[in-house]
Amino acid sequence: MISIKNLHASVDGKEILKGINLEVKAGEIHAIMGPNGSGKSTLSSVLAGKEDYEVTEGEVTFNGKDLLDMDPDVRAKEGLFLAFQYPVEIPGVSNINFLKTALNEKRAYEGKGPVEAKDFLALVKEKQKLVELDGKLANRSVNEGFSGGEKKRNEIFQMAMLEPKLAILDETDSGLDIDALRVVANGVNTLKTKENAYIVITHYQRLLDHIVPDFVHILYNGKIVKSGGKELALELEAKGYDEVKKQFETI
Amino acid sequence: MIAEKTNTAQQIIDAISPKAGKVGFIPDNVLTNAMLYLENKGIPTNKHEDYKYCNVDAILKKEFKNIKQELKTISSVNEFKLEDTVTLVVVNGNYSAELSDKIVLKGLHINSLNNLDAEGKKQIASIADAESDAFIALNSAFSGQGFHLKIEKNAQLQIPLHVIYISSCEGEALVNPRNIIELEANSEATIIEHQIAFGTGKTFTNFLSEKIVKENAKLTSYSIQDEKENGFSVNTNQVKVERYAKYDNTTITLSGQLVRNNHNVVLAGENSEAHLNGLFMTGNTQLVDNHTLMDHQVPNCESNELYKGVINDKSTGVFNGKIFVRKDAQKTNAYQSSKNILLSDDGTINTKPQLEIYADDVKCSHGTSTGKIDESAMFYLNARGISKESANRILLNAFAGEVINKLEVDSVKEYVEKRLGF
Ligand SMILES: Nc1ncnc2c1ncn2[C@@H]1O[C@H](COP(=O)(O)OP(=O)(O)OP(=O)(O)O)[C@@H](O)[C@H]1O
Ligand SMILES: [Mg+2]
To answer: Which residue of B has its CA nearest to A49?
Structure first.
C-alpha cells in the first residue's frame, strides 16, 4: 500500500522528520503514538501534500506510484485520505456541495461520470447513519460552528463517502465523548476490508481497544524509535514515554 | 485640495457639442452652472482628493482622443431580458419606449425626461448638484433623453423592473444616461439597473440617477455593471431617503475597463435606513473604484455597508467609504465593512474608511481586511481530492456569496453567478 523510506522533512529550515521508515500493507492497521511535538501530524501533512513542508530526503511509494510527485488532490484521488487533527472551518461552502464536488472529481479521475443526484443522497444518508452524524450538519458550511466532536465525526463521514485505500486518522479520538468514540470506531471497523489500510495516530489505548492495530510504532523526535504489536500500546499506557525518551535523548 | 485644471473638459465639450441634442429639460441656471463648473474645475485628475486612485482625466486623454459620437441604434434586447421582470430600455442615454415592454403595472408611471409636467420638472437636478462634481456637471450639460420613473403612493410593484442601459458606438463616444426614480410615500419597488455595452467602439458612460425614497417607502435597487473591456464608466447615484423609508442597493461589477461608482446617500428623514453592498471581481488592467457617502443628517437613522473585492492580474480595486454624521444626527447607527482578496502580486487594493462624526451619541464602526485565499481551507479541499482550480472557485464563490445572496431576484442572481463562473 504505502512504503516510506528514510523520509526527512523540514519547515522553515528546521528539520522535523528525521528519517522515517514505514511499510503498510493492504488489510493492515498501524497505530502511531508518541509525545506531543514528535512529528506525527507533520508526517500526516507531508503524506497528504501540504506545501509548507519541504521534503529534503527519502521517498514514498503509494500503490507503486511516487506519492511525493503528486499534487495533494491527486494523492486523494489515488486513494489517500487524511482525517485532520484540526479540521478547518470553511464558511460559505456547504458541506454537502463540497463532498459532491470531491466525489465527482474522484469519479472523473477514474473515468466515471458524475454521481446521480438520488444515488448521492442515498449514499449520504447511508454514511451519515454509519457515523451517526446529524443530518442537519450536512447542509451547514464545512465544519463552521461544529463542536469538536462533530468535526471529528464529520471527518469520518467524509472518509466513508470517499472510500479511500489508505486513511490516516490524526487523533480522531481526541475531543470525542465515550459514545462518540465507539461510534467512530465502529464506523472505521465497518469500512475496513482486506483491500484498504489505516494509520491511526493516537495518544490513548482506549481507541485501540476498539480499533485493534496490527502494529504499533512510537514516533519520537522525528523518528520511529520503536515498533511492536498491539501490546506495545498497553506498555506505553502503563509506563509512559519516560523510558523511550531516556533511551533516545541523545539522538 | 486644489484640483489642477486641464483642458480635457473643453476638448470633450468641443467634440460632443456638434452632435448633442438640445437638453431642454435641465433648468437654465443648472445648465449654466454646469458649464461654468466644467470650465473652471475641469475633469478631475489624481490630484483631486476624491479621484486619487482614479485619474479620469488621464484615462480620457489616453483612451478618448478622438470622440466621434457615432452612436449605433439597437433593434432588439431580447437576449438581455431577465425572467420575471419588466424590461425598460435606454440606448446611449436615451429612453426607448419602443424597445421597452409595454406592460401596464398599477401605480407605475414612466415618462421621458423631456415630457414631464411642472411637478416632475422640479425634481430634475433637485438632489444631484451640478456644482458638486465634474461628472454631475458633465451629465447635466449633455444629458441624454432619460426617463422619470414614479411609483405612486401606496403602490407595491409586484414585478421587478429591469432597466437595461446599452452603450454602443463606433470609434469613441461619450454617453450620458440620466434618470429620476421616485418612490412616493408607502410604496415599494425593486429596480435592477443593468449596464451593458457592445459593438466595436469604446464608450464612456457618464451615468446619473437621482433617487428619491419618500416616507415609509422601500426601494430595493440592484446595479449590475457589465460593459466589458471597451466600457468606461462613471456612475453617480444621488439618493435621498425620507422618514421611515428604506433604501437597499447591491452593486455587482462584472466587467468594465474603468468603473467608478459615486454612491451618495442622504438620510434626510428620521428613522430612515440605507444598505449598500458591493462586489467587484477584477482582472487584467481593470480599475474599479467604489466611492460611497452616507450622509446622516437627522437622528435615529441606520446605515450599513458591505463591499467585497477580488483583485487579480494587474487590476486595481478601490473602496472609499465616507460616513458623515451631522451635529443633529444623534442615535445614528452606521456600519461599514470592506473585505478583499488579492489573487496576484501585481494587483492593488486601496481601501479607506472616512468617518466624520459631529454628533456624540452615535454607534459607528468600520472594518477593512485584505488577504489571500485561505491556505488551510485550500489544503483541506485539495486533501479531499478537489483540484486547485475548483477549490479556488469554491472559495471565491463562498467569499462573494455574502454579497451575491443579497440579490433576491432569482434571475438576477443566476445571471451574476453564471457571469462569474460559479
Ligand atoms: N508549520 C510549522 N512551522 C513551524 N513549526 C512547525 C510547523 N509544523 C510543525 N512544527 C513543529 O514541528 C514539531 C512537530 O509538530 P507536530 O504537529 O507534527 O507534532 P505532533 O506529534 O503531531 O504533536 P501532537 O501530539 O501535539 O499533535 C513541533 O515542534 C511543531 O512546533
Ligand atoms: Mg498532532
So the answer is: B383
